[in-house]
Specification:
single chain; about 375 residues; mainly alpha; DNA polymerase, domain 1; hpI Integrase, Chain A
């Protein structure tokens, strides 16, 4: 595992504790030097001016933890089963510690209490972040401090009673119409290695509704067959396993990609690898998630789609299309890899479609009156 400094703040706050002054030599041979008592271990506090003496802080040193505290933080990160979750928690903790240090530089001694967490929430709001993003930061802190409480490093969770924003706004992700999907899928050139890769990625996004990380992590042995059906065996959020059926159009795209790129389904190799790598020349590795975003944006622009789309738009489109065809919510839940059906309404990007508005079906008979002629 990477060092804790790289997982948290990478030596952020090294300037927090001033370097001790060099030891003074004796002025003469007869006058021995007076050895100063060792300074108390400091964490994240000091007085307003440099000339004043430093005081011990009543808080933990989360920037440069040692001993049991360091092991506890490492265990917290390792306990997150998903690599993406582990990376997100580490990133959230870095941001909070950076805010804490900046506040300490301006205000002096700061204790780890609820007021500090509330101030952090206000700072995130002032940056214009989405309410869902801010709530995710607060959830990360709440989980982290709960862990420290259980390990006996702090007595009370400072984020426990900090209120979430609980946004009720609709997601800004926009889906594709059926006509737009057909235009996008006509874009890749199937005669080239690059085009075959781009086409199969788009087909899996639109027909299988995979998350971008799930698509990039696909390996050869995850394509399996049972009772005449081919399917992906996936590990999604929370390390939950699910099965997604591979329809014939998607399987044909996979076969074409394998044929053009001279690959086979044997072994545990990544299913999708870079066509070329001019920097390191290493191509036997999974594709980067940024490539998936580039593919969706490229062929959307070629199809004349002007609104902002992303790989997440493809996933939302697949879920919306399934709901349009009256697929039961339970089946959509399993298809998308959710623990409950509450997310379905949020991801259904066609529920507010102008063409399918309920207004079109309202009919009271002939109620329209004739208007008088205007002069």
């Amino acid at each position: 595992m990477a060092s804790l400094g790289s997982l948290l703040l990478r030596r952020l706050g090294r300037r927090s504790t001033p370097r001790p002054k060099p030891r003074q030599r004796p002025t003469s041979k007869t006058t021995p030097a007076v050895r100063k008592a060792p300074r108390p271990t400091l964490t994240l506090a000091r007085t307003q001016t440099r000339k004043e003496t430093l005081v011990p802080a009543p808080v933990l040193d989360l920037v440069r933890p040692t001993g049991a505290l360091k092991k506890s933080i490492e265990a917290f990160l390792l306990d997150q089963r998903s690599e993406n979750t582990r990376r997100a928690y580490s990133k959230d903790l870095k941001r909070f510690l950076k805010y804490w240090l900046e506040r300490r530089e301006r205000s002096g001694l700061l204790t780890l209490d609820r007021g500090l967490v509330i101030g952090y929430k206000d700072a995130l709001l002032s940056e214009g972040l989405e309410h869902t993003t801010i709530d995710r930061h607060l959830a990360s802190l709440r989980s982290f401090f709960r862990w420290l409480v259980e390990d006996g490093h702090i007595e009370k969770n400072p984020a426990e009673n900090v209120r979430f924003l609980n946004p009720r706004r609709e997601s800004k992700t926009q889906g594709f119409t059926d006509e737009e999907v057909l235009k996008v899928l006509k874009g890749p050139d199937l005669h080239t290695r690059t085009g075959s890769l781009h086409y199969v990625i788009l087909m899996i996004l639109f027909y299988c509704g995979l998350r971008r990380s799930e698509l990039c992590d696909l390996r050869m042995n995850q394509i399996q067959t049972e009772r005449g059906y081919r399917f992906f065996r996936l590990r999604g959020k929370g390390n939950a396993e699910r099965i997604v059926v591979i329809r014939d159009p998607v399987w044909n795209a996979i076969e074409h990609y394998l044929y053009v790129n001279r690959k086979s389904l044997n072994g545990d190799a990544p299913l999708f690898t870079p066509i070329r790598n001019n920097r390191t020349l290493r191509v036997e590795k999974p594709i980067d998630p940024s490539l998936v975003f580039y593919i969706v944006r490229k062929y959307s622009n070629l199809a004349g789609i002007t609104h902002r789309v992303s790989p997440h738009s493809c996933r939302a489109t697949a879920i919306s299309n399934a709901r349009d065809h009256n697929v039961p919510d339970r089946a959509i839940q399993e298809f998308a890899g959710w623990s409950t059906t509450t997310m379905i309404t949020r991801y259904d990007k066609r529920k507010s479609s102008l063409e399918k508005s309920a207004v079109h079906s309202i009919d009271y008979g002939q109620t329209e009156r004739k208007f008088p002629k205007q002069n």
